[in-house]
Design a protein that fits this description.
Length: about 210
């Protein structure tokens, strides 16, 4: 039988050490100590004056770059708002130039109608000349805006620019436009209205 003061045998000490929890065998290292130990190689104990000046210069440049970034961002935001506003105004006043050219035409029509009302019927020729002048003025204004006539008279039928409303027997080549009932118009090669035409076809007795 072993007394209280008698030391434990070596085998029992080993068994107790194996069964003892790991947390009780040795105190665990503090997390702060581990972080300091890991960061120790990255921290310099002393900075030279040249290194401090370099750090200050880098910090100054960083501040300048950040300020420049803020200014560029503000300028771009202002540009975006201004571009959106100008686009809306362009859409709103897109027809301003053509309308400004048509206003004088309206003036001439007013004067022609007034003259026709007050003048005797014998002045029909002068009235016709005045209307022709206004018509040419209107055509010129529309041509400057890019409007082009589609003249299909005596030309082969083209479904891209012409609209056939009827066919007529004729000795002319089949598919040729015999008569243009209404002019067509296009704007920069974009069709606005096709020319309304009558197209030739072979006579009924032809082979």
């Amino acid at each position: 039988m072993r007394t209280r003061d008698e030391p434990l045998p070596m085998t029992e000490m080993t068994d107790q050490a194996e069964t003892q929890p790991a947390a009780e065998r040795a105190p665990a290292a503090a997390p702060e100590a581990e972080a300091v130990a890991l960061a120790a190689p990255l921290v310099k104990a002393e900075w030279t004056p040249e290194q401090l000046e370099d750090l200050k210069a880098r910090a100054s440049r960083a501040d300048e770059n950040y300020d420049r970034f803020l200014r560029v961002t503000a300028d771009f935001d202002n540009f975006r708002k201004r571009a959106a506003r100008e686009r809306q105004e362009a859409i709103r006043f897109a027809n301003e130039s053509i309308l400004a050219k048509l206003v004088p035409v309206l003036d001439n029509f007013d004067m022609a109608l007034t003259a026709a009302t007050n003048a005797p019927s014998s002045n029909a020729e002068s009235f016709r000349a005045g209307v022709a002048m206004i018509y040419n003025q209107l055509k010129s204004a529309l041509a400057e805006a890019g409007l082009e006539e589609i003249d299909a008279t005596q030309k082969p039928f083209d479904p891209n620019w012409h609209e056939a409303v009827s066919e007529q027997e004729s000795a002319a080549a089949e598919g040729q436009v015999l008569q243009q009932l209404r002019k067509g118009y296009k704007l920069s090669e974009r069709l606005i209205r096709p020319a309304t035409v009558v197209v030739a076809k072979k006579p009924g007795g032809a082979a």
